[in-house]
Each structure stands twice: as C-alpha cells, then as structure tokens.
Specification:
Layout lengths: L4 H6 L4 E6 L4 H10 L3 E5 L7 H11 L5 E4 L5 H9 L4 E4 L5 H11 L21 H11 L1 E6 L2 H5 L1 H5 L6 E4 L1 H7 L9 H17 L3 E5 L2 H9 L4 E6 H17 L2
Parallel strand pairs: 1-2, 1-8, 2-3, 3-4, 4-5, 5-6, 6-7, 7-8
Helix pairs in contact: 2-3, 4-5
Length: 251
C-alpha cells in the first residue's frame, strides 16, 4: 500500500509543491503531472471557493496530495475543506497554542475533537462513512501557519499541541507584523523565521516555507525545511513567459 501524505511528511525527506490560487483543475493537473509532491490549494487568498477546491482534489488527489489552506480557522470552513477528501489542511494565522488547539479540535472527529460528521466526498458520499470515521484522525495532515511575530515567540507551545503535524512559515505576513511588510531579508524578520525553524527542527516537527525559485528551495532544504512550496502557479507561468520574451527580444 502506498504511503499516505502524513507518512511521507514524517519520514524526513523534503516534499516539494506549489501553490494553486486559480479555480482551474486543469492547471492543477498540469502541476501534478509535472511531478510535484503536493499542492497547496489556497482558499485564503486565491480565487477558489470550496467547490473549486473539491474539483481540484477530484482531479489530482489520487496522484498528488492536496492540502487546503482554509479561509479562516472556523469549524465550518475546516470541515468543508476536509470533506473534499483533501490530504489535510493548513490553518492560517496560528499565533499561539490556544488557536492551534481550537483548529485541531475542529479538524478531528470525536473523541479527539468536535468535527461534524458530514456525508460528502471524503466519506464516499456515505458509502465509506465508517472508514472515514475510523481513519481520518490518523491520516489527515494538520499544519499550523506561523505568520506573525507572536507565533515566533510562542512557537514551542504551538508545536507542543497534540495533532499539529507541521508548521508552515508565512514570511510576508510575518514581516508585516514587525512593521516591515515585504522586507523578508531584514535581520529582524530573518531572526523570527530562524526562531520558528530552529524550534520546529529541535522539536521534531516538519517545517515548511514558500520558496521563490528552485535555487531558493534547495537552500531551504539544506537548512532543514521539509515542506517546500515553490511559488504559485501564476508565478511559475509568469517566470516562463518573461523568460521567453527576454530570449526572443534579445539582440
């Protein structure tokens, strides 16, 4: 039997994905066929809604795990994201242990949590309901996004919460929380990023981050990051388009 995404995340090898922000199963399919290990399906900032996310999971989920970033950390959003059959969820703006605990409880079926039991795709529309109830708590990946200086200061408490399977650093919002929006290279921002990374590595919790390029992703892997998201599908397309234009317009 093939390893689950959770098992692959736990085995220590880096997993490389990209972020999907457009409601296009075809684009997600192209990215999956390219060989990415996972897809970051973004319902917080992207143009996708829950129906779009489910279409993407239906299209590629069997060969490329999809992890859905919910638009907000409320029980309904978390349940709807997981009911698509996604491999897991990313919780945005987890700034402390209390928020991490609440998100995990919303994502876990009783007795570990309070997730409502739905009859949706993840449950085989009812045909695999008991299988889902038996396996979901064990197999679904739950990732806290650390994207505020408060998260950096409280990262040990966040990763100590049972059910948190990984941490994904959001460098842009983190820089904004320090009053330096977009200044990722600023020493104070880098120190906060390093504090999160080091605490996760020390605690044995997989840590991830957004990389702008393959070269940057390789550097992150060397630093111990294990869940890498290389750009977005729109960034990848833009990079290729600009490269073609430069090459064709070169003297």
């Amino acid at each position: 039997m093939a390893a689950t995404f959770k098992e692959r995340l736990a085995d220590g090898r880096p997993l490389v994905g990209t972020l999907i922000s457009l409601p296009s199963p075809e684009i997600a399919e192209v990215c999956a066929d390219a060989g990415f290990d996972w897809l970051f399906v973004d319902l917080e900032h992207g143009l996708l809604g829950f129906p779009d996310a489910q279409r993407i999971v239906q299209t590629v989920g069997g060969r490329c795990p999809c992890v859905i970033r919910v638009p907000e950390n409320d029980p309904v959003s978390i349940s709807k994201a997981l009911d698509t059959g996604a491999a897991g969820s990313i919780f945005p703006h987890i700034d402390g242990a209390e928020e991490a605990r609440a998100a995990v409880r919303a994502a876990k079926y009783p007795p570990q949590g309070t997730r409502s039991v739905g009859i949706a795709r993840a449950q085989g529309y009812g045909a695999r309901l008991m299988e889902s109830l038996e396996n979901a708590n064990r197999e679904i990946v739950l990732i806290a996004q650390a994207e505020h200086i408060d998260a950096a200061r409280g990262i040990e408490a966040i990763i100590a919460e049972p059910g948190i399977d990984g941490v994904f650093i959001g460098p842009f919002d983190l820089s904004g929380s320090l009053g330096k929006p977009g200044l990722i290279a600023d020493p104070e921002v880098q120190a906060a990023i390093k504090a999160i990374r080091d605490a996760c590595i020390k605690g044995g919790v997989p840590v991830g981050i957004l990389a702008r390029s393959a070269e940057a992703a390789k550097e992150f892997m060397e630093q111990g990051y294990r869940l890498i998201c290389v750009g977005t599908e729109t960034m990848l397309l833009g990079d290729i388009a600009r490269r073609i234009v430069r090459e064709l317009h070169a003297p």
